[in-house]
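We now fix the convention by which a protein and its fold are recorded. Think of the row as the fold of the chain written in a discrete alphabet. Here is one such record, which you should read through line by line.
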Amino acid sequence: MGRVARRSLLEVRYDVLRVIAEGESKPTRIMYSANLSFNPLKRVLRGLVEEGLICERPSKDDKRTEMEYCLTERGMRVLRLLGEVEGELGLVDGTIDGRLGGSRLFA
């Protein structure tokens, strides 16, 4: 069994943006869908909010969750651009299909 490469910060941020764009807004759902533990997720969410890629809003319908997250217009543009880069490089399962020795996109 080989070692699994860790995701770069850019890959993690891309995954979180993608998960939010797909409709998850609550931290726990984002955490599970993006395959992160809670403390790294909090740091990523805080950074994305500070950069204006996502917005934070009080949760209205769930008393267990204080905040929910949504993509901003800037976040949608960044997500679209990262998806285009991923498509242009011909990524399959997170690696460039053999052309660069299995290099990860954002490693």
